[in-house]
Amino acid sequence: MEPQSQDLKTAPFLTLGRFHISEDYGFLLPNPLKELPDHYRPWMEIANRLPHLIGSHQLRAQVNEMPLLNCQFLTGYREQRLAHLVLTFITMGYVWQDGEAQPKEVLPRTLALPLVEVSRNLGLPPILLHSDVVLANWATRNPGRPLEIRNLDPIVLFPGGESLRGFILVTVLVEKAAVPGIKALVQAVNAVLLPSPDSLLQALQQLRLSIKDITRALGQMHDYVDPDIFYAVIRIFFSGWKDNPAMPAGLLYEGVSKEPLHYSGASAAQSTVLHAFDEFLGVRHSKESADFLHRMRDYMPPSHRAFIEEIHSAPSLRDHILSSGNSQLLTAYNQCVEALAALRSYHLAMVTKYLITAAPKAKGRKTSHLPGPPQALEERGTGGTAVVRFLKSVRDKTIEAILHQSG
Prior knowledge:
Elements: H1 41-48, H2 50-55, H3 59-64, H4 77-96, E1 106-107, H5 109-122, H6 130-135, E2 139-140, E3 152-153, H7 161-177, H8 179-193, H9 197-218, H10 221-224, H11 227-234, E4 252-253, H12 272-281, H13 287-297, H14 302-313, H15 317-324, H16 327-364, H17 387-399
Parallel strand pairs: 1-4
Antiparallel strand pairs: 2-3
Helix pairs in contact: 1-4, 4-5, 7-9, 8-9, 8-12, 9-16, 11-16, 12-14, 16-17
């Protein structure tokens, strides 16, 4: 990271391109690849049949027959991201194929070695991440048409049918809805540096609209995702081997480490969007929540993590607004904070519906051929947090960020 210039007028302005963030797609990987080079056909053949192989309990046998392939024939960033997506999906299926009562605690070397190799190349952990499930797992049916559910497909799937497809694609649309907000955030950081009150006001107003659009996009979850399927079928495949009582010893990556390794499961807390908004708006979370959120940054692409750090090191927006005495800026700032708190309240209500309310129903019925709901993770997020307490805390701390005019 370049040292911050003492004279802010000559400080390098913030741009998205420096952090490999797309002007059109934000943190989404633009136009992810759907196919790897022919050398990696054994991986793709398994990935393309994953729901069937898991449902018929054949995945582990298939993986055990997989050849050991070297990652040297992966060229370019998008091929590496697709390899990480494919290998982590296969890994989650392999571990959880027979449910949480019988997880596989050893990952065979034919899967472990290439997974760890591609993970090191990307600076990512060797487990399924939000950047796999969502950011690199979408394709348009018709590239000329808008990004909407009926024009999108995931690239790799677990069991869960239309509900899993909906869960992935609605989250893709949430990330897309955040793009104007990310661009507004960059405009605002630069407006504080100049300073330009008009540009800052415009950026804050745009950020508020984007946060409202994110909330609207998230609302499509109710239309496309069945809570019972999400809880009983889908959720286990996002579960990790850190803070998970079903796998207290962690996972042994054969040929990589003599000791088992511990990694958290995929979680919305791995999305860079709200981390960036929190840093920009100066929202301060409780120690427990902040520790978890900071740990989740290790599960993001390194350039996205660096973007959050850059916003953190920028001059304080709150101090700037308070010292400016500009009541329009103060109002616009508070409206952003209120919109963010409302988004978090909405997310809390949704998690309550999809986790807490669905749990008793799922216990009452077992879907015969699939692993079944993870009891060990009951009332916990797939990242390993006590989810309702965490979401209430981050919402309440967001509300506490509201500024009051001094004097």
